[in-house]
């Protein structure tokens, strides 16, 4: 599928049953809720997807099911996060053979690669597939930054096309635009900076809390695209306490609690993750409860996306 790197692309969670099996029925409920809200793509196998705990067979099952549910309506992108170059190439080839629309790629995992090693890694994978690639640039969490000089070299490969911008530096969006124009598409990767990023020129939003609140997330994007910034800010101010659940070491548990509260997910996580308890659980529950009680009426914005 040919597509553009733009719009709201949920980094979806993986649904599990109480006995730690894939819950494909509940997974389908959530994917359909995303599609009904008007998202522009689905991203599998990120941190929220608990990909590091999934087997290859489970990843294949999730990819096949998502492609089937989406039925060409939106692109299905899978994350590549591997320890070795050979492993990343194998994953990329497998994803392409199964029908993925594109790849999101992290730098090498568990090894703090040098700039040269990181570029060689990205290039080797890009040259092994025809799929379009979005580089995930998150030096805060992964300790490897893909600099503009590195992108200058990487963009010699046509299928490296986008960046999930998670440096937490809003001005970096302007630096990218000044240097590369539209050659490198930018999707914000930090929920709490998404509106600001899109106002500064990011083409889209790889979102987390969208997993629980798809319509509100899409509404913010659509309002920004229409230049209705004040209205987007109105929703965003309501959303921010919930969005802050994404910038937390327990983001998976937090977002799954929110998904359960909105009826499109469950709290089941895979060990070593455990459900929240005690004061932290109460804190998150209170944020979600208040968010639901004050949830904005999106109908007043008169947007045309499916769920609005």
Automatic annotation (TrEMBL):
Domain of life: Bacteria
Binding site for pyruvate: 206
SMART domains according to UniProt: DHDPS
One of the Pfam families matching this protein, by short name: DHDPS
Record's keyword terms, sorted: Lyase
Active site per the UniProt annotation: 136, 164
InterPro entries documented for this protein: Aldolase_TIM, DapA-like
GO molecular function ontology, one term from the record: 4-hydroxy-tetrahydrodipicolinate synthase activity
Record-linked PANTHER family: DIHYDRODIPICOLINATE SYNTHASE (PTHR12128)
Family designation: Belongs to the DapA family.
Name this polypeptide is given: Dihydrodipicolinate synthase family protein
Taxonomic lineage of the native organism: Bacteria, Pseudomonadati, Bacteroidota, Flavobacteriia, Flavobacteriales
């Amino acid at each position: 599928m040919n597509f553009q790197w733009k719009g709201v692309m949920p980094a979806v969670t993986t649904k599990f049953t109480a006995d730690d099996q894939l819950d494909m029925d509940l997974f389908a409920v959530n994917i359909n809720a995303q599609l009904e809200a008007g998202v522009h793509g689905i991203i599998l196998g990120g941190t929220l997807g608990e990909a590091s705990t999934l087997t290859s067979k489970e990843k294949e099952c999730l990819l096949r099911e998502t492609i089937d549910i989406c039925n060409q309506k939106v692109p299905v992108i899978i994350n590549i996060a591997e320890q070795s170059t050979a492993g990343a190439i194998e994953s990329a080839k497998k994803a392409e053979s199964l029908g993925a629309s594109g790849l999101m790629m992290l730098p090498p995992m568990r090894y703090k690669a040098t700039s040269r090693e990181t570029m060689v890694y990205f290039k080797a994978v890009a040259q092994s597939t025809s799929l379009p690639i979005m580089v995930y640039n998150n030096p805060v969490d992964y300790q490897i930054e893909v600099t503009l000089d590195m992108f200058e070299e990487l963009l010699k490969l046509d299928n490296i096309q986008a960046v999930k911008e998670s440096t937490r530096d809003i001005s970096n969006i302007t630096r990218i635009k000044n240097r590369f124009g539209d050659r490198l598409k930018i999707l914000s990767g930090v929920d709490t900076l998404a509106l600001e990023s899109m106002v500064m020129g990011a083409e889209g939003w790889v979102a987390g809390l969208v997993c629980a609140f798809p319509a509100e997330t899409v509404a913010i994007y659509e309002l920004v695209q229409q230049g209705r910034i004040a209205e987007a800010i109105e929703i965003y101010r309501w959303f921010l306490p919930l969005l802050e659940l994404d910038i937390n070491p327990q983001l998976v548990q937090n977002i799954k609690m929110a998904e359960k509260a909105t009826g499109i997910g469950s709290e089941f996580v895979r060990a070593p993750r455990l459900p929240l308890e005690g004061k932290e659980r109460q804190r998150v529950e209170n944020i979600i409860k208040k968010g639901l009680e004050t949830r904005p009426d999106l109908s007043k914005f008169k947007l045309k996306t499916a769920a609005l």
